[in-house]
Amino acid sequence: MAISVALLVGSLLCGWLLPRALGRLDVRRRDPLPLLIGWLVSMAGVLVAATTGLVLQLLPGHGVGGWAIELVVDCWSALHHGPAPRAELWVGLLGLVVGGVAAVRLALVGGRRFSDLARETRRHRSTLRSVGRRADSTPETLWLAHDRPLAFSLGGRRGLIVATEGLTRALPPAQVDAVLEHERAHLRGRHHLLIAAADALRTVFPFVPLYAHAPHALRELAELAADSAAARRHGTGTVHSALTGVARHTVPRAALGMAADAITVRMERLRHGDTGPRRSRRALACGLAATSGLLLPFLTAFALFLGLAFTVCPLPGW
Amino acid sequence: MHGLGELETAVMNVLWDADEPIKVRDVLERLDTGKSLAYTTVMTVLDNLHRKGWAEREHRGKAYVYTPAWSREEASARALRDVLDSSGDPEAVLLHFVASGSDEETDLLRGALRKKRIRRR
């Protein structure tokens, strides 16, 4: 009981505190990729820790040993048998119901999201292919005869990049290449899929801040990561000019307070002229972010369990 | 706006690239699909395009001549409006280089901004 409760409380605690910690990091000065990975992995970590907690609660007698339990073996039975067996049964049943409902909802919402995404992607691809000129490049790139400078990408198994001829009129060739590289980075990083997954998680767990804030944060980080990728190949100055050039033709929604102004953040990051750390350092940072994101809920739970054990049952001789 | 099949798209491209109304045989000659097609296949495709409202035709002598119902630019604008307007759900379908509203939305925003500025004065 104690371990599973510690896991549940630990994952909830991480679900509350992690977005604050992650939100406090300055995305303008940091490499976006480790941050992106940190968000994703901690989202998975919290889910895994909570699931483990629920499953453990259902196992009779908890099939787990470990030195921590043996250390407090004397008072373990007190903790374990403390509440009346009936109460434990009810708590277990409640956990089963809550966990079951969440799992079913996640499966349903996730399934619907992904089938909607696949259907809309297919429909848009077919519409755009009917009118665009296909360029000889991978991933598939379509050029549309249209005056507004636009560029966007569609996800899916084979991604699609769409750009308008207005883009080539508004920007010099080097900047157009940078814009296309930005879109390619979205497809390489599977950003469409990641954001859709985060959207589904937010729908199911809107009360957990980690999941509530994730779609917005991931969107911003995906743009920053794609900018970095484009800047590594074409230089920060080129990407910055391209961003300015395209943004000039659109009304910034932030002017009406409709959305946080991601473009300002992107421009500030590009103005620093930093294309991010070297490859080996990036890999290290990404690995660290992934490991800590996954372990943090479990470590929190472990710390909670130890804290509980030490307060409730002082070690012999202490 | 419904998308076209691969062959229909290829035929539309021929119509758009042509300067004047063209016959089925001209389309067949200019098609570059990598495989040889039967005359009747192309005729059927043109017939479908006419039925779907993408192509217009008129009698010239014994045969029909075909023209695109709208220019490539008009078709692109329609396709873009279609895609951009419906991309709100699910939101992750499109990732823009710079997110922007549709034409009407942009006009609305411009109008609203102007009002905001005037009120501030």
TrEMBL record, chain A:
Transmembrane residue ranges? 33-56, 89-109, 288-312
One Pfam family name is Peptidase_M48
Cofactor note (record)? Binds 1 zinc ion per subunit.
Q: Does the keyword Endoplasmic reticulum apply?
A: no
Concerning CDD domains, the annotation shows: M56_BlaR1_MecR1_like (cd07326)
Q: Where do the Peptidase M48 domain residues begin and end?
A: 133-203
Give start-end of the signal peptide: none
| Classification via InterPro entries | Beta-lactam_resp_regulator (IPR052173), Peptidase_M48 (IPR001915)
Instruction: Identify which cofactors the protein needs according to its UniProt entry.
Output: Zn(2+)
Q: Give the protein name, as stated in the record.
A: M56 family metallopeptidase
Coiled-coil region(s): none
Q: Name one GO biological process term.
A: proteolysis
Species annotation: Prauserella cavernicola
Listed A to Z, the keywords are:
Hydrolase, Membrane, Metal-binding, Metalloprotease, Protease, Transmembrane, Transmembrane helix, Zinc
**Family per similarity comment:** Belongs to the peptidase M48 family.
Q: Which GO terms describe its molecular function?
A: metal ion binding; metalloendopeptidase activity
From TrEMBL, chain B:
| Biological process (GO), any one | negative regulation of DNA-templated transcription
One matching Pfam family: Penicillinase_R
- Entry keyword set: DNA-binding, Transcription, Transcription regulation
Q: Mind telling me which Gene3D superfamilies this protein's record contains?
A: 6.10.140.850, Winged helix-like DNA-binding domain superfamily/Winged helix DNA-binding domain (1.10.10.10)
Recorded GO terms, molecular function? DNA binding
InterPro entries in UniProt: BlaI_family, WH-like_DNA-bd_sf, WH_DNA-bd_sf
Family, similarity comment: Belongs to the BlaI transcriptional regulatory family.
Q: What is this protein called?
A: BlaI/MecI/CopY family transcriptional regulator
Query: Could you tell me which species this protein originates from?
Result: Prauserella cavernicola
